[in-house]
Amino acid sequence: MHSTKKDIETEADIKLLVDTFYENVNKDALLSPVFNEVAQVNWSSHLPVMYKFWSSVLFGTMAYKGQPFPKHLPLPIEPTHFNRWICLFTQTVDSLFDGSKAEDAKQKATSIAHIFQMKMGFIGTLSRPQ
C-alpha cells in the first residue's frame, strides 16, 4: 500500500511539523506543564526559533544560531519527559509525512534527546577501552 503523504521538502513543511508537534505538546499532561508553567514559553517567539532549528537540522540552512542545551538544563525533566517528547515527535512526523527526510527528522530528534539526557547524567557515558 502506497502512502499518500509526502516527505518533508519545504520550509512550509517544517512549519507544519513544528506547529503540529507543539500543539500536541500543549495538550500533553506530562509535557505541557514543563513548557507552559515552568519554562513559561512565549510561543510566538519560540515557534519561529524552532522553524529555524529544524530547517538547519534537516535542510542544512544554518538559519538557527544558538545553543539549545543550556536552556533545558534547569528544567525539572527526567527520562520520562524525554521519552514522551520522542514519542510525540515521532507520532507527529508519522501523521504528516512519509519519506527519507521524515525518517531523518525522527532519527535526529531521538539523537538530540539522547545527547541531552547523556549531558544531564541520565544515560551513562560509553566506557573507553583501557
Could you describe the 3D structure shown?
This protein is mostly helical and 130 residues long. Helix content is 65%, strand content 0%. It contains six helices and no strands. It has helices at residues 11-27, 32-38, 43-59, 68-72, 79-96, 100-119. Helix 1 packs across helix 3. The protein is globular and about 40 Å long. It starts with 10 loop residues before the first helix and ends in an 11-residue tail after the last helix. Mean pLDDT is 91; it is low at 125-130.
Give the key terms.
mainly alpha; single chain; 0% strand; 6 helices; 130 residues
Count every beta strand, where a strand is a DSSP E run of 2 or more residues.
Answer: 0
From the alpha-carbon coordinates, what is the Rg to the nearest angstrom? Answer: 15 Å
Mean pLDDT: 91
Identify the quaternary structure here: single chain
Number of helices: 6
What does this entry show, briefly?
This protein is mainly α. It has helices at 11-27, 32-38, 43-59, 68-72, 79-96, 100-119.
Write the layout of secondary structure elements.
Blueprint (H helix, E strand, L loop, with lengths): L10 H17 L4 H7 L4 H17 L8 H5 L6 H18 L3 H20 L11
Helix pairs in contact: 1-3, 1-5, 5-6
